[in-house]
Amino acid sequence: MGLLLYMGIQCTGCNVKPGTLVRIENGKIEGSYNDDESIRIFKGIPFAAPPTGDLRWQAPRPVQSWEGVRPCTEYGPSPVQNKPEPFYCWTEEFIAKPEPLSEDCLYLNIWTSARSQTEKQPVFVWIYGGGLVSGSSNCDIYDGEEMAKKGVVFVSINYRVGVFGFMAHPGLTEESGYHASGNYGFLDQIAALGWIRDNILAFGGDPDNVTIAGQSAGAFSVHALIASALAKGLFNKAILQSGGLFSNRLMQNLEEAEQAGLHFMEVAGVNSLDALRAMPAEQILALGNDSAVGRFGVTLDNYVLPVDLLAHFEQKLHNHVPIMAGWVTGDGALMGQTEMTLAQYMAAAESQYGDRATEFLSIFPAATDEEVRQMNSKLAMLNFAGITVHMLSGFNSHPTFVYEFGHLPPDKPDFPNYGAFHTSEVPFVLHTLHAWNRPWRTVDEKIENWMSSYWAHFARTGNPNGEDLPEWKMYDKISGHILMIGDTILLKEGYMKEAFDFLEAWRF
Q1: Which of 445, 490, 485 has its CA nearest to residue 242?
Q2: What is the pLDDT of residue 326?
Q3: From CA 80, how far away is CA 71, in angstroms rounded?
Q4: What residues does 110 pair with on adjacent strands?
Q5: Contact predicate 489/471, CB 8 Å
Q6: Which H helix or E strand runs over 50?
Q7: Which are the contacts of 475, defined by CB distance < 8 A and separation ≥ 6?
């Protein structure tokens, strides 16, 4: 019978390991250790009230405090979505656990090597991808143990997706109190960042040194947070991997989004929000899958996001922080390339670019049908992810660091090799190759160590460079330095300059 005093907790006669009991704003939680007890792990910490019942399609509300000690050793439920199953190149390591799925999903997870509040380690917040319709913080490749060993407090968060996370409706706008609706998934992320600000010190993290990072829809989310006045002061650095809002995908204004919500209610066969909220989540999900309903996404609502996103950045009204961003060479394949002959490619260039067609073809040349496929893939890659990076570098008052990932994972027996596919860089970044079932080689582990170190250094200082790492110079529209990550790492100057100059002039 002893007295345990650790991280602000006193416990007489507790049968817990030192350091696993932590007091946060809403009560006490108990976590666990990794195998060698170098990392403390806390999973399934609620950062907002369950968005269920009357709170479905509402901004996240504060967590209700609890008595006693809350166990936080297992992931919380993933957001409601279609049953997560491996597909195409994305094996089970990249996919959310199929159970449990619930509207009660607003939980986060923490890995930390800190042993006291005074350490104030940098905080690294991971936001998952999934097209804003799927995903979870519990994917194998998002495990935070190895990054925590690099001296960052690693936090992964959940947010609502699909119809639950992004449906707008005139009735929801009227009841909101802020004259907007939709974007609940982004509001969840902002609520999680607010929780981190208020609680992360208890885990040895520095609330004044927070990096947000995400891939694909996670990068869209990071871009939204950079834009949003509601996120001001909640983070200090940002990482966008394969995505950004300047791709103009999944975006609409509030009126358009509200009309989609009205159509959803019509398809549901009800005439009130109360009736919609009374429907089981499974039924709402099934209705959201109806192709006649359409897809819910980003709403330029004048609350979470500005009505004119480009003007907002041009006027430098966004949150100015150091940025690290890039893309994967296989990102273009995500767009679903349409077969096109050389003749069709030439005709399309004339039709789309008019008197600039010759310039376009000099930058994106093709002499065969195979080269047409390659050029279309490159265009899709740059329009999906690259153009956001390029534009942000011009708007931002802090440094931007840009990469291109083209490293090929090794073959897996009896499984196609999809090359450097969309999301394939994430296990290298988060140092989780051990969670991905492939016959890894020395070269893969070298790239993993380099990339995870760059990311950890950036989280610490806003500069990815460090000892024993190849130099990474910051990007600007003049020099165009891009770090090329293949079997080795090479810094290229002006690598995409002509392409970006053309696309920027044409699109913006």
Answers
A1: 485
A2: 98
A3: 23
A4: 42, 155
A5: no
A6: none
A7: 389, 393, 400, 401, 402, 481, 482
Q: Which of 167, 61, 168, 51 is nearest to 102 (CA)?
A: 51
DSSP string, 485-496: ESSSEEEESSTT
Can you tell me the distance from the alpha carbon of 48 to that of 45, in angstroms, rounded to the nearest whole number?
A: 9
Across the 508 residues of the chain, what is the mean pLDDT of every consecutive 10-residue run? 35 66 98 97 98 98 97 98 96 96 98 96 98 98 98 98 98 98 98 98 98 98 98 98 92 96 96 98 95 90 98 98 97 80 96 96 96 94 95 96 97 93 98 97 98 98 95 96 97 97 94
Which helix (H) or strand (E) element contains residue 153?
strand 153-157
Largest CA distance in the chain: 84
* Cα separation of the two ends of the chain: 69
Cα separation, 119 vs 201, in Å, equals 9
Rounded-to-integer distance, Cα 501 and Cα 440, Å? 38
What are the DSSP calls for 313-380, one per residue? Answer: HHTT-S----EEEEEETBGGGGG-PPP--HHHHHHHHHHHHGGGHHHHHHHS--SSHHHHHHHHHHHH
Question: Position 468: which residue type?
Answer: D
Q: Which residue in the block uniquely carries the two structure tokens 């650790």?
A: 6
Token digits of residue 188: 């969840």
User: What's residue 13's pLDDT?
Assistant: 42
Helix (H) or strand (E) holding 267: helix 254-268
Q: Is 88 exposed, middle or buried (0-12, 13-18, 19+ CB in 10 A)?
A: exposed
pLDDT score recorded for residue 407: 98
Q: Specify the pairing of strand 107-112 against strand 153-157.
A: antiparallel
Distance CA 72, CA 89 (A): 32
> What's the pLDDT score for residue 2?
31
Give CA–CA dist 210/198, Å, rounded: 12
CB crowding 404-438: b at 16 or more within 10 Å, else e:
bbbbbbeeeeeeeeeebbbbbbbbbbbbbbebbeb
Measured at the CA of 112, the angle between CA 209 and CA 459, to 5 degrees, comes to 30
Q: How far apart are CA 70 and CA 328, in angstroms?
A: 41
Q: How many residues does the chain have?
A: 508
SS3 148: helix
State the CB neighbour count (10 A cutoff) for residue 446: 13
The answer to whether residues 261 and 288 touch, using CB atoms and an 8 Å cutoff, is no
State the pTM of this model.
0.96
Query: How far apart, in whole angstroms, are the C-alpha atoms of residue 506 and residue 508?
Result: 6
Q: Are 272 and 148 in contact (CB under 8 A)?
A: no
Beta-strand relationship, 40-46 and 32-33:
antiparallel
